[in-house]
Amino acid sequence: MTGPAHHARHVPPGALAHLRVTVIGLGRFGGGLGVTRWLCGQGARVTVSDAADADALADSVRQLAGLDVALHLGGHDRCDVLDADLLVVNPAVPKDIPLLALAAEAGIPRTSEINLFLQRCVAPVAGVTGTVGKSTTTAMLGRVLAERFATHVGGNIGVSLLDRLEAMKPDHVVVLELSSFHLEDTPLVGISPKVALVTNLAPNHLDRHGTYADYAEAKKNIFRFQGDGDVLLLNAACADLADWRAPAPARTEVYDPAAEPFDLAVPGEHNQANAQAAWAAAREFGIDRATAAAALRDFAGLPHRLQFVAERDSVRYYNDSKCTTPQGAVVAMDAFEPRTAVMIVGGYDKGVSFDELGAALADRARAVVAMGATGQQIVEAVEARRQGDAPPVDVARDLPEAVALAKRQARRGDVVLLSPACASYDMFTNYEHRGEAFVALLSQAANR
């Protein structure tokens, strides 16, 4: 890939007042909210265009109340592109939609929320990406850096930092979780974080990127534009990262995910690996191990990420709804003793293989309950690898039935683990909605 597309430079940082800016993609769970509010605060004339209608976007629309925003919902109008001075595209919007092709033909510059932030941020940025573990690693790194610096954590972890730009100073630190969707657009501005951390790499989002190679190319944008004094940090145990190198004169370093363990409150070897990754990045900012260890000791984990929910009849229930990859589900299962986890899996089809997940479930799960669009694929992957009738496999029509079936399969001392290995869009608004539904089902059962 060559350098940044020159047309993005037509709208330099700070030149947004009075410009006609179209935000493409408000999102059912507010992916475009932060940038829309910020653009209004910059004096831009903002239009929001979304293919979904007002009913589907009701919560997001409600949060824009009082702002001078034109809402064009229920379909995209070509005038929203051709009359704009700048397009700001939500990362969830595919880059191959006709609207963006029209913009390119007309020479309309486009950017993203992350790009707008990176162009204006005066503080050094640590960026975290990877297929699994990036949210927890981001949160851990933010916790460690906050021991010494004013620290701002955002990006894919769910927080827009645009409205904090004015408060940021050069001696602060920013930690950004960056998904492949975010990183697709960074070549438009040619900026990579000062510290770029990659936790691991495995096939994901192939419904969006097409091939594993294209997915990896998007991830590489986290370091592609690094320069003097910058560093790329890679997981030494991930073979698919072995030949990645930052461009000279930036450095490339590796960290050992199985190094001397930290005393953690969150379970699992994967969380030890996340802690090692966070510590490797914190070292680049001068943080010593004792400081990192103290900060990590009380880290309680993220909601929807191996979140302990309840214990019922000597069975513990964990919400890992944020797990949207097969690799993540295997990692979550391996946080517990073999043959003790009743796994609830399945959801939206991102086009990835379930062969490795099926083999792991067949080998180590207590039982499997599959649901959603990918449920049958996962069942077939398990049945192709299991010996005899272990583990038992059930198919559920929905989450309430999945929880009921899992309860039936669980024995005293087992865990029931919602770790879907898939996105949620076939049945839920997002992974939070899915996780909250799981928690609510357990709460209802306790109140009966």
Structural account:
- Helix content is 32%, strand content 17%.
- It is built from 16 helices and 17 strands.
- It is α/β, with parallel strands linked by helices.
- The strands form three sheets. The protein has a six-stranded parallel β-sheet, covered by helices on one side. A six-stranded mixed β-sheet has the order 12-13-17-14-15-16, with helices on both faces. It has a five-stranded parallel β-sheet with strand order 3-2-1-4-5.
- The N terminus is likely disordered.
- Helix 6 packs across helix 11 and helix 12 runs parallel beside helix 13.
- The chain folds into three domains: 96 residues, NAD(P)-binding Rossmann-like Domain (Rossmann fold, 3-Layer(aba) Sandwich); 183 residues, UDP-N-acetylmuramoyl-L-alanine:D-glutamate ligase (3-Layer(aba) Sandwich); 140 residues, Mur ligase, C-terminal domain (Protein-Tyrosine Phosphatase, Chain A), CATH 3.90.190.20.
- It is globular.
- Strand 4, helix 4 and strand 5 form a beta-alpha-beta unit.
List the helices and strands and how they pair.
Elements: E1 20-24, H1 33-41, E2 45-50, H2 58-62, E3 69-73, H3 78-82, E4 86-89, H4 98-106, E5 110-111, H5 113-120, E6 125-129, H6 134-145, E7 151-155, E8 173-177, H7 180-183, E9 195-198, H8 206-209, H9 212-220, E10 231-235, E11 251-255, H10 269-283, H11 289-297, E12 307-312, E13 315-319, H12 326-333, E14 341-345, H13 355-364, E15 367-370, H14 375-383, E16 393-395, H15 399-409, E17 415-418, H16 431-446
Parallel strand pairs: 1-2, 1-4, 2-3, 4-5, 6-8, 6-9, 7-8, 9-10, 10-11, 13-17, 14-15, 14-17, 15-16
Antiparallel strand pairs: 12-13
Helix pairs in contact: 6-10, 6-11, 12-13, 13-14
